[in-house]
Amino acid sequence: MRLFRSDELLGIARETLDFVLEASEETHPNEYMGFLRADDARKLDLDRDGKVITDVLVIPGTESSPTSASVRSHMKPNDMRSVGSVHSHPNGALRPSDADLATFGQGEVHIIVGAPYGWGDWKAFDNEGNQTTLDVLDVEVPDEHFFDFTQEDIDRELADRDDGGFLSWFR
């Protein structure tokens, strides 16, 4: 057994990319945004060292419009599995804007998905905004790692809560 495993990012699980494409389409005409998380490839029965993107973390309170998405950065957990971000461009442009580049500092990879949100409508970028390759891998994502909810579900849950201010969210 090796004490240290490779931190190389091997790719994204097909199921996770499916989720990203569907969530981006459902959020249209507004931008979709989330954070990418990865698991050790060996835990996914890959005979390679490295990491595979398996999760998308959607932060409560994310606000989006047709031209931007913003996250309350204090709500983002300090997560050792975090490897980057994903967001959509409803206008279909598959290149980072200046605003995107300003947020790319954290993480190894940043995915931009463009309308109409098909399999060819996404690109991956490094933290300096250079296009990079990200393989789509056929691995089985454990159920507890895959979030099966949408921004609409989150908004509905928040609307159902009493209006007791920010701290009421923690009750």
From TrEMBL:
Keywords, A to Z, come to: Hydrolase, Metal-binding, Metalloprotease, Protease, Zinc
UniProt record, GO biological process? proteolysis
* Record flagged with keyword Transmembrane: no
Boundaries of every MPN domain copy: 10-131
Q: GO molecular-function annotation terms?
A: metal ion binding; metallopeptidase activity
Gene3D superfamilies (alphabetical): Cytidine Deaminase, domain 2 (3.40.140.10)
- Region listing for Disordered, in residue ranges: 64-89
The record's annotation in Pfam families points to: Prok-JAB
Concerning SUPFAM superfamilies, the annotation shows:
JAB1/MPN domain
The identity of this protein, by name, is MPN domain-containing protein
Report the source organism: Halorubrum tebenquichense DSM 14210
